[in-house]
Amino acid sequence: VDQDETRRLLAAVAGGSLGVEAALDRLAAGPLQGYADLGFARVDLHRGLRTGDPEVVYAEGKTPAETVAIVTALREQGSERATLVTRAAAATVAALARSFPGELTEDGPTVVVGPLPAPRGTVGVLAAGTSDGPVAGEAVLTARAFGAGVERVTDVGVAGLHRLLAARPVLDRADCLVVVAGMEGALPSVVGGLVGTPIVAVPTSVGYGASFGGLAALLGMLTSCAPGVAVCNIDNGFGAGVFAARVARRVAG
Amino acid sequence: VDQDETRRLLAAVAGGSLGVEAALDRLAAGPLQGYADLGFARVDLHRGLRTGDPEVVYAEGKTPAETVAIVTALREQGSERATLVTRAAAATVAALARSFPGELTEDGPTVVVGPLPAPRGTVGVLAAGTSDGPVAGEAVLTARAFGAGVERVTDVGVAGLHRLLAARPVLDRADCLVVVAGMEGALPSVVGGLVGTPIVAVPTSVGYGASFGGLAALLGMLTSCAPGVAVCNIDNGFGAGVFAARVARRVAG
Amino acid sequence: VDQDETRRLLAAVAGGSLGVEAALDRLAAGPLQGYADLGFARVDLHRGLRTGDPEVVYAEGKTPAETVAIVTALREQGSERATLVTRAAAATVAALARSFPGELTEDGPTVVVGPLPAPRGTVGVLAAGTSDGPVAGEAVLTARAFGAGVERVTDVGVAGLHRLLAARPVLDRADCLVVVAGMEGALPSVVGGLVGTPIVAVPTSVGYGASFGGLAALLGMLTSCAPGVAVCNIDNGFGAGVFAARVARRVAG
Amino acid sequence: VDQDETRRLLAAVAGGSLGVEAALDRLAAGPLQGYADLGFARVDLHRGLRTGDPEVVYAEGKTPAETVAIVTALREQGSERATLVTRAAAATVAALARSFPGELTEDGPTVVVGPLPAPRGTVGVLAAGTSDGPVAGEAVLTARAFGAGVERVTDVGVAGLHRLLAARPVLDRADCLVVVAGMEGALPSVVGGLVGTPIVAVPTSVGYGASFGGLAALLGMLTSCAPGVAVCNIDNGFGAGVFAARVARRVAG
Amino acid sequence: VDQDETRRLLAAVAGGSLGVEAALDRLAAGPLQGYADLGFARVDLHRGLRTGDPEVVYAEGKTPAETVAIVTALREQGSERATLVTRAAAATVAALARSFPGELTEDGPTVVVGPLPAPRGTVGVLAAGTSDGPVAGEAVLTARAFGAGVERVTDVGVAGLHRLLAARPVLDRADCLVVVAGMEGALPSVVGGLVGTPIVAVPTSVGYGASFGGLAALLGMLTSCAPGVAVCNIDNGFGAGVFAARVARRVAG
Amino acid sequence: VDQDETRRLLAAVAGGSLGVEAALDRLAAGPLQGYADLGFARVDLHRGLRTGDPEVVYAEGKTPAETVAIVTALREQGSERATLVTRAAAATVAALARSFPGELTEDGPTVVVGPLPAPRGTVGVLAAGTSDGPVAGEAVLTARAFGAGVERVTDVGVAGLHRLLAARPVLDRADCLVVVAGMEGALPSVVGGLVGTPIVAVPTSVGYGASFGGLAALLGMLTSCAPGVAVCNIDNGFGAGVFAARVARRVAG
Amino acid sequence: VDQDETRRLLAAVAGGSLGVEAALDRLAAGPLQGYADLGFARVDLHRGLRTGDPEVVYAEGKTPAETVAIVTALREQGSERATLVTRAAAATVAALARSFPGELTEDGPTVVVGPLPAPRGTVGVLAAGTSDGPVAGEAVLTARAFGAGVERVTDVGVAGLHRLLAARPVLDRADCLVVVAGMEGALPSVVGGLVGTPIVAVPTSVGYGASFGGLAALLGMLTSCAPGVAVCNIDNGFGAGVFAARVARRVAG
Amino acid sequence: VDQDETRRLLAAVAGGSLGVEAALDRLAAGPLQGYADLGFARVDLHRGLRTGDPEVVYAEGKTPAETVAIVTALREQGSERATLVTRAAAATVAALARSFPGELTEDGPTVVVGPLPAPRGTVGVLAAGTSDGPVAGEAVLTARAFGAGVERVTDVGVAGLHRLLAARPVLDRADCLVVVAGMEGALPSVVGGLVGTPIVAVPTSVGYGASFGGLAALLGMLTSCAPGVAVCNIDNGFGAGVFAARVARRVAG
């Protein structure tokens, strides 16, 4: 994976400073150096190097102590990069605040530990309704943690087109759009008819009855008649934020 | 059900011209007079009287001969009312044309036998895409057969809003709208944000993959964020046409 | 959207009292005047003008304070129109009562703030079982708030046909029917065989097992063998009330 | 399983005419005597003795030759009992007619080979629409083959209640009812409100769109608000006929 | 519906003691006499006469007070017939016990108020696992309330066939079997291979993961390879008990 | 079932020490000896003899007292074999600990009562993420209770391949692999491309939105492009542990 | 929409060369100029100007003649831009070839009419299996038509990781990746663990049984444990190609 | 991956016969040597070495020519190992027979090219019904091609238990069982109650209506109450054969 390290190893073999069997062990063990074994979790320390993004901790189903331990292990690798924690219960957010005083940026259950990176490029995050706000918030903070600038527009559902049209300048400025909507999830189709910007659609579980926990919005977005729409999992503001930030950063060069 | 007939019967009992047991039999047998038993089908002859609409023959799964026989039985009750035949295969349409020369109005598999009624009120029928045309056609001809006038607009999907906005006068004139769309089925939501006209939404099976035979459009329409949208079965242009015609006729008074 | 306003603007340009760039800005900004930006929500102030209906606040997922703030913004636009709040938790209802003393009409979680409009036309609301009552109640109060008169019949399920037949006069009087049923949702089909009135069917989540949260009733209503039945989302008494009121008002002229 | 045979075997052991190991083998092999191994199928010869019903051959997915071979094996066991063949393609029906001339009773793809038993008790079979006829036909012929008398009523859907009410005498006479319906499948609920007879409901795949191949009718019947309704698989006229015949025969004593 | 009552009415008309219009009103109002309007519910007082079964109160979603009021209305019609209450919460059971001291027979959430009828015929109730017990209990008490005798066998799943085979005498004695099973729901198929008794299968929501709340058992029972199996809704011990009791009573003559 | 016992019985008949009818009774009653009837459950005492595995108690839906009673009945049959209790609530675990002091091995809700058997063969248990740990734990303790040795690897998801590759020696050593994963469930496919060991895949309900309670992982594993993957129910660590232990023990000879 | 055009119009009003009402008509009619009404379809002529992409014709469900007419209308607007036709039947491809000789680039049912644009940026298209080829081909040709360069890698499924690892240079070079896979759809997760490039995942309907027409792959991709994965509809190579080309073009600047 | 090859390479570096950069290239290129690039497919040549199994060609969706080309490429690597082709259309089987005369073993659409390996261990394959035969056949021939001996039992459904009990010796002899069943898929549960052998269950698409293409059987097997059952995809006889052969070979040692 890391060609330079392998080159040095091979040079050591060529130079006789490293035996064949030892080199064999090192090559086999190589990947082991990429994570820290905490017993209950193997923390991937090299992902940032591989992908250019920070490690992320999905806090749902983990105890506050486990989450803090994982974040601590990551922070010890180098505190200049931010660590993003998503779906953190209140107790977990509090535990992080105690462990990392003055280092947190919070948006409800989404938390960044450490300094936010300088923004490169612009992600536009649109939410169809007030109830879609938390998912949009997850996308906003994620995109910031992954290095993009963010502009946010709320409550621009398709049943009141003039509100959406008023947000046209934001749509035009963005390098990538995240469009969050529940219920029938029609917003990405309408936005996709207005602009040629790549659109990452996020269905939310907002709704009831035949929305089936976000299924209606999910299917609607997948079958959008507007091209240039790709879809993330229901309520997955995080995934959309990552995707959009990667696009925006690349466009910014 | 028919109070006049029952009143005459009771008067006959009171007058002694009809015995108690005979009256009892007549009351019990009353409903039997409402249909013609063709062996393979019981044709409901009184529905028109009950509901103000013509009888309809759903031709799918019936042989041409069966369909012709049913239509003939209905036409013999009184040829002034039109008979609507839906989902007729080409062979069935041909058989009807042979049996009722000069009496057919056709729109693909939808056929009206007999004179179309004078239009009362206006139904607007919108279709999102070219492929939704046949379902829209079924709605158009059905609404005409059920006594309403119809205005039709085609190919006004949400990904090109200006085409929809150009149809605004039709939206404003209609007493009831039928909005037909496949794929994500977002059109009724957008139309519902523009006008206060009652909207009957018809999902179509146009699409592929996650449209699951029209399920995506169906769920999208059911969970529309715009109020005043009610939904018919997938591809059910007939049901929407009946519903809208009934509304339009009532509004016309 | 508003042609008079645009006409005045153009006249000002023609008259020289308004510059080209200023007019351009005003045309672009036009839609912005249609809503009030509350920070957490964009309240659509012009919807009533566009659609003839009051704004509605869907309270589920909003805090009592947010709901009160939205209602207040709407009420400040002109208190002569009623504001409808649906799915309000008890705390939200209480907060509204404190903020708008003497102005509330309540039916469980459905609340109208301000005076109910004079009734035009008649909506008949039928519920199949006692358990369907809350959804029927939402339809009843919604139809009233949207300007129609309402007649309500409860507990007329298909397994006891004589109860339904006894409600025949209501069925005949109504300009539009809302038929609410859970479990197998057969009531709209039976009613649709009795009368030619447009029927808005509302499946409810009443039931268990294979009712799958209202799916059985939903599918049953969508595939009804009676024409003239259109369907709203599961438990969506609100949507059915809006739809039916719009029909009834139009029929009343 | 067969106590008499086992008693004789044990008596032979007690009498010394059968050794212990031989008896052990015979006990183990016992079940083997219950079927004929045709290579491609093990024909169960004792089922009739166990359950009081004839063997049935489900012809779908079998070649005409295979079906004829299985029927022949069964007929050779004793021709006094009828053999029922369901879902037979035309070629299979023709092959059976060649192999068993003069012995067939046919109803489309349902065929009885051999004499029909004398009827005991009465099964009423109702079909909601003309299109449900083939499934009703399978139920009718199956119930006859399984020993019950049958009365059949067709085209009595819920959207025309007077047709159903006219069939009341049949409903009252039957020992068990089979009610066949597609689309929303509401007929069993209405019938169940009229009579206290056990009702076996059969959903059919008649319909389109949200009927999802009979799923709507199936769910509707399972969640019927009328007690005393049990449901068979979609299009399973056979299973309903077996069930109803068993009830009717038992009631007849 | 009630021919004797109608005969008396007609005789009164013939005798002149009743005018035509008055008779017309009485005929129209006739069905109204069949229920008591409690405001929140229309209690069907004539169902017992129509179907031979007692009225049943489904207590889920009703308050204790509502349930007691309905039961009281029913008991006042004549206390010789039992009233069955199902899915009663503990508070409802307690309220019933206070209102009808000494008159309750309870099995968890299933309650009978009033004397149980003398048993006619025999229903066998089998449950596959311990966890299926409550559903089986609902079937047992329902069948008793509807007039049948009951034999109950528990914990006879297909993974231990010898336990099932030991229950063979019960299987043979029963006039109708209720077979209750969760998870894969295979028990009815195996029982159906052993006996020719009509089998009412009840899937339960026991299980997890791919049992999807009883869906796996439901589909399994519907597609059973054994004929003579009909299926009730998931967890619907009540419906199965009604069905089986009706069969058993008829067989008993 | 038990040939030796039957042989002795037959010998007794042959020797005259047992009469024919008594032997018949004994043969019929044989299966009855295989379980203990506790009233609320029939405990299968012979399963171990039949299958080579201990009895297992699925504690979900059982009271602590019921679970303890069942375990006690099993332990009284012979304490040398372990008893496995799964899905035990904390109160049930505590009750078991009180009843069987010093005899418990616990892993959260999974408990073994009595001595663990000596390990034969090796099962490798892999979990994709930290959140999948409890299901993996159920598999680990089950496989041990069923007689296999176990090696466990945690947190080796496909998004960090080097962690998986580092576990290669475990993959190579195992006689059978249990691979536990939620979300998209891709791990078994990747492992199946690396080794030829039989893989039992266990989807977990870890995830949200379109994971639909484990459905996404379940479908993914069932459609794996790698051959040699068989799948257990969602979250069914127990079933996978049993399966893998049986394979491992057989391989160990 | 088009500010320059509006500015000119307003200047004409200010200058008196255009009357107020005429300007009002022009503003209202503006959107009408954006499409050509072909009777059976409204061709959107301005989409390219709005979104920077060519018009696309989805040929499924259109006759060859209709498709040719639409393409002709588009080509007449200016032949320098390519027109993309997808899902064209063989007859449609032939008709296009006859109408536009020497202007077609074909990849099975995907056709470009007119010159391909110069490539900007690089899209990498990966397909898991040979059977996924057609969907990958649609993505490849679409991305080219939308202005990006493309590199294609085939048959790199997760069950043979070394084939995927060998494609690493392509993964590293691409500005955006399209990853196409059927069956369990695990490939995007594995690729997402290797690189930080935005990944557009396309599930295909390749598979059988529990793949349910691509549903398994769709759910798997939506729930991918790797961030930075967004998903298109099943078999929607077109949508993925559009999305990826837009990203790549923006990155290229 | 291949340690010996890597050891030799490192030794060459140590010995100076291979330069560092050349070794680096070789290490990087290593995986490339594992497949043959045929243009339309990358044939994995090393899978056999990695997993101990032959390469398999899934012929569905491939042309006869493509299938023959892939098989030829594989056979050229060394003809001593068999090549398995599944789901081959008749034309593909014929093309293979022409290309590899005298080398084919066929079972319908399943074909082995080249000599079958000597059998190690025993796989028992059971099919519930005649219609399940083709899937069972795929399992049988696959298991043979993967090196196991096979015993096959057909038509042993749960509705005739004595046929299954007669097959007991096969159940007892097998090292691993493949149990194939459609409809309700109950057979694995019953077999799992009889023996402690690992059971690989294969649901088939045999059935109709609520079997939903094998879904009923699939869910039934996944939720089996018998432990030790793992499940393959619907109709996936191949996967089950591979799995079972791997178990059987390992047990045989």
Molecular structure report:
8 copies of one chain form a homooctamer. By secondary structure, chain A is α/β, with parallel strands linked by helices. Chain A is built from 11 helices and 11 strands. Chain A has a 5-stranded parallel β-sheet with strand order 8-7-9-10-11, sandwiched between helices. A 4-stranded mixed β-sheet of chain A has the order 3-4-6-5, sandwiched between helices. Chain A has a two-stranded antiparallel ribbon with strand order 1-2. In chain A, helix 4 links the parallel strand 3 and strand 4. In chain A, helix 1 runs antiparallel to helix 2, helix 4 (64-76) runs parallel beside helix 5 (90-99) and helix 6 runs parallel beside helix 11 (237-252). The longest helix of chain A has 16 residues, at 237-252. The two termini of chain A are 25 Å apart. Mean pLDDT of chain A is 84; it is low at 28-35 and 45-51. Chain E binds chain H through residues 128-129, 157-161, 183-186, 189-190, 192-194, 207, 209-212, 215-226, and chain H through 128-129, 157-161, 183-186, 189-190, 192-194, 207, 209-212, 215-226.
Task: Write a brief caption for the model.
Eight copies of one chain form a homooctamer. With 253 residues, chain A is an alpha/beta fold.
* Sheet with most strands of chain A: 5 strands, parallel
Instruction: Give the proportion of residues in helices of chain A.
Output: 40-55%
Strand order of the largest sheet of chain A: 8-7-9-10-11
Please give the most extensive interface between any two protein chains, plus how many residues each contributes.
Answer: B-C, 34 and 36 residues
Shape designation of chain A: globular
Q: What's the total helix number of chain A?
A: 11
Q: Please provide the ordered H/E string of secondary-structure elements of chain A.
A: HHEEHEHEHEEEHEHHEHEHEH
- Which stretches of chain A of 5+ consecutive residues score pLDDT under 50? 28-35, 45-51
- Estimate the mean pLDDT confidence of chain A: 84
The oligomeric state is: homooctamer
Care to count the β-strands of chain A?
11
